[in-house]
Design a protein that fits this description.
Number of domains: 1
Radius of gyration: 20 Å
Strand order of the largest sheet: 1-2
Number of helices: 11
Helix content: 25-40%
CATH class: Mainly Alpha
Organism: Ceratopteris richardii
Number of strands: 10
CATH architecture: Orthogonal Bundle
InterPro entries: CLK_kinases, Kinase-like_dom_sf, Prot_kinase_dom, Ser/Thr_kinase_AS
Order of helices and strands: HEEHHEEEEEEHHHHEEHHHH
GO molecular function, one term: ATP binding
Keywords: ATP-binding, Kinase, Nucleotide-binding, Serine/threonine-protein kinase, Signal, Transferase
Shape: globular
Largest sheet: 2 strands, antiparallel
Protein name: Protein kinase domain-containing protein
Mean pLDDT: 91
């Protein structure tokens, strides 16, 4: 049987709607409403051109509303990423713009969604607060919160970190943490956001202890797997530099929102409901 809380979740307007469910050969099959492409697919088919800030604001508001609703039900999504946020419609406006490639320009067709409505999908990894295993590894690598990597246990704030990573990507077209290694991932965090707080380092457990020298600082670049990895981290821009390079019309309130969502200490991050009260959402 489908858990009653998930049935309530599927009924929320900003979450994918369940039409019906049935059992087939000991499997539960769920029929969902038809939606448009994911934000990830839209970015990729649009040459990684970022969404406008008006659209990012609308996406962010709906994502946070969905997550606030989940958290109020005592559920944690644990796998928030652009692939799991779908536009409700495939319709878009198309226009041609000159694009600089190397030393030459060529015309390229770009698209803008006609509708800004989105819905959250894929609750297969969702877990209740009481039933979670706080020592397990959750979230897709690029959107994984530092407390998960450091073995500090995780809860609702891991979703908030993932949202911060998503919003940075949607507004720049660039993956914030393009890595597949824990140590490199942590080094990129420090490059983008500054040093990991000492009080978190002192509490790391398990394999994560190997990532630090004398529990004082990240073992980087000494512990890097290769010189290529070191160069990859060196190429990473600080958060404000990233926005200045890829997001032409970004607002200071948006940068502040990202910094709040991407706090190292999960206790310092706002809840989804608190984030909805940020000045960024009072813009137009």
């Amino acid at each position: 049987m489908i858990h009653q809380y998930l049935l309530v979740l599927f009924a929320f307007r900003s979450c994918v709607q369940m039409k019906r469910w049935f059992e087939y050969e000991d499997h539960i099959c769920i029929v969902f409403e038809k939606l448009g492409p994911s934000l990830y697919d839209f970015l990729k088919t649009n040459s990684d051109r970022p969404f406008t800030f008006k659209l990012v604001r609308e996406f962010a508001r709906q994502i946070l509303e969905s997550v606030a609703y989940m958290h109020n039900l005592k559920y944690i999504h644990t796998d928030l990423k652009p692939e799991n946020v779908l536009l409700t419609s495939s319709e878009c406006r198309k226009f041609v713009v000159p694009v600089l490639e190397g030393s030459s320009k060529r015309l390229k067709e770009l698209r803008v969604p006609r509708c800004s409505r989105v819905k959250l999908i894929d609750f297969g990894s969702a877990t209740s607060y009481k039933q979670r295993s706080a020592s397990s590894i959750v979230s897709t690598r690029h959107y994984r919160a530092p407390e998960v990597i450091l073995g500090l246990g995780w809860s609702y704030p891991c979703d908030i970190w993932s949202i911060g990573c998503m919003l940075a990507e949607l507004s720049t077209g660039v993956l914030l943490f393009d890595t597949h290694e824990d140590l490199e991932h942590l080094a990129m965090m420090e490059r983008i956001l500054g040093r990991i707080p000492s009080h978190l380092i002192k509490n790391v457990t398990g394999k994560a202890e190997e990532y630090f020298r004398h529990r004082r600082r990240l073992n980087w670049p000494e512990g890097a797997s290769s010189s290529r990895s070191v160069r990859a981290v060196q190429r990473v821009l600080q958060l404000d530099e990233l926005l200045e390079k890829y997001a032409d019309d970004y607002e200071n309130s948006f940068l502040d929102l990202l910094r709040q969502l991407l706090k190292y200490d999960p206790n310092d991050r706002p809840t989804a409901e608190e984030a909805l009260g940020h000045p960024f959402f009072r813009g137009h």
